[in-house]
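re: ur question from yesterday

yeah so i grabbed the chain u mentioned. its 434 aa long if i counted rite. heres the sequnce exactly as i have it in my notes:
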Amino acid sequence: MRIAMIGTGYVGLVSGTCFSDFGHDVICVDKDAAKIERLRKGEVPIFEPGLEALLAKNTAAGRLSFTTSLAEGVDGAEAVFIAVGTPTRRGDGHADLTYVMAAAEEIGRALTGYAVVVTKSTVPVGTNRKVAEVLKSANPGAKFDVASNPEFLREGAAIDDFMHPDRVVVGVETEKARKVMAELYRPLSLREFPMVYTGLESAEMIKYAANAFLATKITFINEIAALCEKVGADVKAVSKGMGMDGRIGDKFLHAGPGYGGSCFPKDTKALARIGQEFAAPMQIVEAVIKVNDEVKRRMIDKIVDLCDGSLRDKTIAVLGVTFKPNTDDMRDAPSLTIIPALLGAGAKVRVTDPQGRHEGEALLPGVKWVENPYQAASGADLVVMLTEWNEFRGIDLAKMARKMAVPRMADLRNVYDPDEVREAGFIRYSGVGR
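ran it thru and got these structure tokens back, copy pasting raw so excuse formatting
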């Protein structure tokens, strides 16, 4: 099948590349001429394990190409995906649909034959019907169906998630559109991965409900962690005991400095806003948003306490700034709240991250970037484990402690065993919920 993917951000680029690996003819469209030129050269503008090799493979095979011309991309396409950004709108927390509607209007003008226009972007309930209205207004004679096909890609594991999904959600209203979508995902159905067909509104809602629930699990265990610190319990033991219950599961029960990234902050805010608009307040989600902000501030207090109540002229080594490992994404990362607070309190901050420097240099002015954890810790008064990259899990703790002016650790991801840290020479250690 011929597919047009409008938008070469994280979702569009990964999805388009993976569809081409299924054997489809995919053309990815973006208005950013510099980005398109880089992609044509095989340069991937984001860090995602395995993506560069997969892109090169399918570009060489002639199944994947890139253009700045939407009309060229849409011409002859049987499915046209909208995969543009839906950032949080300033002032009201709603998803900004400016790019989605602009893409829909341009797609409508470019349609020459029947196509299924598929919204891959995360959009509020009712958006696909508005997309249909825009398409029809732009081209009254156009023949099309709309479909909702939300993505569930984890940054750092996106290719595996696309190729081996828990489920594929497809919202359609006609049998013709369903057949097109079934053919697109036929390689997955042959491997017996589940396809969930619903109406448009249900598909839109599934995405928000799933992300809000996962954000709730993270926030819940972070609240339990705060209580564990007060009563003398260990949140890691609590999480393990909870997660062994089949009704709960062990995923997303790891205490830390709060959730971040491109999805959870944006989608929880959007869902809360949708609830307000329809007079069905999402009270749990609203509480999750509030508590997640408080969790980050609690991490700052923990760091201050480890430094005896003052950060003035203290040197602090921060290990990791991306919102999670195996990505260069800094969107809503806890580091963007925590590090500026440390600098504002008078600390000198050294930072190391395997992939975060490219974006981090602009987002975190005032920090000193170094190449590895030992350089960061040299002469430091405190080391903060903020993103649990694999490179940081096997640190020689004794070597690090010897390099520090005052060997103290704030392990905000509970990577290390407290006793091992102390045995290595650290005089103070603080995890989360321990």
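noticed a couple things. The longest strand covers residues 2-6. also The mean pLDDT is 96.
anyway ttyl
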